[in-house]
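Dear all,

This email documents one entry for the complex benchmark we are building for the journal club exercise. For each entry we list the sequence lines for every component of the assembly. Then comes the predicted three-dimensional structure of the complex as a token string, followed by one or two observations. Please use this as the template for your own entries, and keep the labels exactly as they appear.
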Amino acid sequence: MFEAIAFYLFAFLTTVMFFITVTTTQALHALTALAAGMIFISAFFFILGADFLGAIQIVVYSGAVMALYAFGMMFFDTTRDVKEKNGNKFIVFGLSIIAAVLIVVIFAAPMVSTNIVALHPMIEGAGNTQELGMVLFTKYLVPFEVAAVMLLVAMVAGIVLAGKKMDLSLTLMNDAEIIDAKKEQHKKVL
Amino acid sequence: MEIGLNHYLVLSTLLFAIGLIGVMRRKNLLLLFFATEILLNSVNIAFAAISHYYGDLTGQLFVFFVIAIAASEVAVGLGLLIVWHKRHGNIDLDHMSTMRG
Amino acid sequence: MELYLYLALFSPLAGSLFAGLFGASPRTKIAGVVPSLLLLLSFVSSTVLLIYILSGGEKVHVEMMTWMATGDLYIPFGFIVDQVSVTMMMVVTLVSTVVHFYSIGYMDHDKGFNRFFSYLSAFVFSMMILVMSDNFAGLFIGWEGVGLCSWLLIGFWYHKESATWAANEAFIMNRIADLGMLIGIFLVYWNTGSLQYDQVFATVGSLDKEVLTWMGIFLFIGAMGKSAQFPLHTWLADAMEGPTPVSALIHAATMVTAGVYLVVRANPLYDLIPNVGLFIASLGAFVALFAASMALVNRDMKRIIAYSTLSQLGYMFVAAGLGAYWVALFHLMAHAFFKALLFLGAGNVMHAMHNELDPFKMGGLRKVMKGTFIMMTLASVALAGIYPFAGFFSKDLILEVGFVENHYIIYTVLLFTAGLTAFYSFRLVALIFHGEERYKLFGIHPHEAYKFMLVAMSPLLLLAIIAGSFKMTYFEMVTAVLPATEYHVHSAIAYWIMTIGTQLFVILAIAFAYKKYANNKVKVPDGTSKMENNLCYKTLSNQYYIPYIYEEYLVKPYRELSSVFWKQVDMKVVDATVDGIAGIIYAGGEKTRVMQSGNLSTMLKWMVAGTIGLLSFAVVFGLAVRYSGEIKIILSGLGV
């Protein structure tokens, strides 16, 4: 009973939050609503007994990712209303719903027909975090390392892209401009 | 009232649809990123639910990796977004038409 | 003996490949000499085999390798040297050796000297496969090989429009006949389950008569094409566009006799169907007369000899059709010698006269070309069948066969034709070598051919004279495999009357020819004389208007039909379909490029649409797999 109430409550909240995210004209509202939706989703993880994922969800999404977005938004003018011309709304909604239904059908089909054999069954008596750790550092060690490398690469890429003087393009400039730019650089050094 | 796997799947679908609406509707690139986050999260719920109901940890592991991917995507995507904004002064999709065929 | 067999078979191939190496380089003597020597080797090997067979040796049968083996079909590359094929091998290698050496002189000034020898040796190789193969498939390979080489050699001077035309005509006519041949071979395989001669002929006896008749008819259609029998005869005269040695080798001595060889080889089959045999004999007699009549008035030296060949082929078919296979083969051999000699002599004359072919423009050449004169005269005597030359023994034998078998009409026709043969042969000799020196009017200075060319021709001359004396030896040898029927007129008086009568008739014809054409009054015809405007003469000189009829009633309607198909079917249906498909795709691309607006938002929408398409496919296929059993039941209920 408690589970049902929690599920419906959070389902409602998540849906509303995400809906606000995709419909509002205020970027700040969208960001806030998204962050809220992320936290509500972590509630589902807790309900489902995936405590570790719930924690991750809060830490990574609501913490790191949202913080990144917040920083990113500082570069842009966020106070202004987001103006968007839109074509046929029915197309947008129709396509989305059809796609979602199809995906559910595909996911649901094998479950309805046959029982999936658990490849990595939950171990009785161990906490969720421990279980996850056991599987992650045995069976999924290599993907885990790859994911780590990928994150490193992403970090480097983010720093390089955002930090370097990227508004200069040597290919788009003519020779005189290039010489000017070089002189300016030298001046700074001196 | 028992909450079953199908409840979660329907919720996941609903969120996925919302995400798709956002993807198709948004013209502002930053808000488009938000919509993709919604897509990823909706799938995460489905994974976690399936993992729970079948007693298999693989689903949870996938959620873990999806979160990692989402994080790196945000890092790189935002970097690109900033570069674009510096050069063109806006992040509007309708202004990106260099791929006209 | 196998070594000799392989030597005889493959040394022409080696020669051809050797000459082919020099194909693109300028004229080199060695490209002619080496193939000739290799052919000599082939000839020597054949001789060894002949002696071996003559001395009572077993026939040599080798299986070089498996060619096709699928299911019940088994066709090896097998070769057999028995009494029949060794005869043919001797004829082929001897004549081609002579022709090769002769050609070194004849083609001396030709740019395509190397190419010529490559083709010529390749021809000999194909011919050897044809005669030596122990199955119908190998025979067919050789058959097509000689056809190809014939095409190459007729069209040797390909810059001449007429030569390419003649080459194509010969090739196409042979294709028509080869279709019949192929059907015949299929029938053989279908009904006997094998293509090996020995197995086929062991089983033909138990087959249905009707099937055998069709088999015989279709195989004979193939023979008709290759041996230029009516109505597929027009190509042979036109094939004289090729170099003269080619005419001597291919279109007189070897390739055109392949048809006769086929009938002789298939003798157990034709023995069972005497009706087809009679048809072959009748057609042969008709062609003999028909071709001889065309030779009477022709004004092209080589064409006259070509018609004579045609006529003699008719004789051979008479003998083969009446079951006298060994006689046919004997005449084939004798004919090869004197006809090749005649052609080579004509080649000398042509050289001397700077490619002039009209005998009316020659005359009196015997003073400058003594050697050629003697050779051609003797060859003509042999052709006419005067005792004791080769033609007498072989040709008179055919007449006797006709008489003994009680086919008096055939006999009469052949007898009459013998007279015509003598007449046109000596008309030619008289016009070329006797009478006034008309060539002076055209400012030509004739000269005798190279000495070694005459020497090269001498073996043929010798054989043209003495070949007849081998009759009994040959009979004893070849009847080991062929039906041994001796043809003797029963009463001695009748025999002597017949022989002497024939001889007298022939001699009279010769005398008439000399009287008419060897005097000084012969003028170059200019189309005004009374004889030339005679209907008979016109019909004959236009070859019974048969080429004209072919052109008018076969070629032109076919061309019209092709044109209709081209414009109506090809352009409006086939091309239109192809263009239509291209047009649809093109227009589709033109329409859908609007999709590529460059707007990322639109693209995202398309992406979602595409995803939906793929997902629907996944669902549909998933359902189809899930319910495949039910779907099958429904489909089978619908009768699919």
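Observations: The mean pLDDT of chain B is 84. Chain B is about 75% helix and 0% strand.
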